């Protein structure tokens, strides 16, 4: 990983890696590199009690004394003590700005579109809106006869 001079060593090609011709034959496109992967043996210990405690969240601690918000003791959010500067309603750039009726209507429509997938099965809705093959043929025939 590091060279003799203290800096990073240049990546070397492993002896197990070989370049071969790609799927198109010799010289017919990109080259394929075989990859040698190896690992080390390790011993796994089964501890059902500890696994159950982990599953139930017993390892979590309350954030800032609030038992509704539980975090892992290594969670970086444990270092945040005052979130008021990050709250949207206290930000300084738009504190006094109020939406007009038209802007509020547009924002409501945008929110409806934004969160549509949360409340609606979009694939089912699309299948309902797209006519089947027979219905398409029938509509084309009726257009030809009337036009």
TrEMBL record:
Keywords: mRNA processing, mRNA splicing, Repeat, RNA-binding. One of its GO terms (biological process) is mRNA 5'-splice site recognition. Residues 33-147 form the Suppressor of white apricot N-terminal domain. GO terms for molecular function: RNA binding. InterPro entries: SWAP, SWAP_N_domain. Pfam families: DRY_EERY (PF09750). Residues 9-21, 135-147 have a biased composition (Basic and acidic residues). Residues 1-28, 128-147 are annotated as: Disordered. This is Splicing factor SWAP.
């Amino acid at each position: 990983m590091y060279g003799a001079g203290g800096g990073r060593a240049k990546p070397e090609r492993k002896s197990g890696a070989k370049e071969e011709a790609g799927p198109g034959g010799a010289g017919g496109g990109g080259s394929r590199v075989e990859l040698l992967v190896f690992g080390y043996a390790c011993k796994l210990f089964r501890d059902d009690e500890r696994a159950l405690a982990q599953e139930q969240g017993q390892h979590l601690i309350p954030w800032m004394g609030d038992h509704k918000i539980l975090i892992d003791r290594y969670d970086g959010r444990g270092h945040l003590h005052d979130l008021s500067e990050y709250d949207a309603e206290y930000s300084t750039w738009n504190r006094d700005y109020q939406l007009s009726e038209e802007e509020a209507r547009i924002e409501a429509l945008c929110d409806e579109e934004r969160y549509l997938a949360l409340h609606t099965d979009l694939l089912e809705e699309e299948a309902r809106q797209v006519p089947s093959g027979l219905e398409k043929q029938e509509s084309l025939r009726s257009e030809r006869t009337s036009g």
